[in-house]
Amino acid sequence: MEIKVLGTGCSKCHALENMVKEVLGETGLTAEIKKITDIKEIASHGIMLTPGLVINGKVKSAGKVLSKKDVKKYIEEEK
Length: 79
Hints:
Blueprint: E1 2-6, H1 11-27, E2 32-36, H2 39-44, E3 52-55, E4 58-62, H3 68-78
Parallel strand pairs: 1-2
Antiparallel strand pairs: 1-3, 3-4
Helix pairs in contact: 1-3
């Protein structure tokens, strides 16, 4: 599984990245986590507001920090 956290480095972007790592640790699932900070690459996913979450090439969220429950749901949908 490939998980991309898209954002330029704001506190919300870091919070989402930490949430993804926390959920992976709790569920025992493994994934390659990529932090994408390049504006052009972020826009290439159709995301105009960060943070963004992309799992296995599918945009799951943009412009908000998700709840832990939502992050877990999105990760489990793609396992």
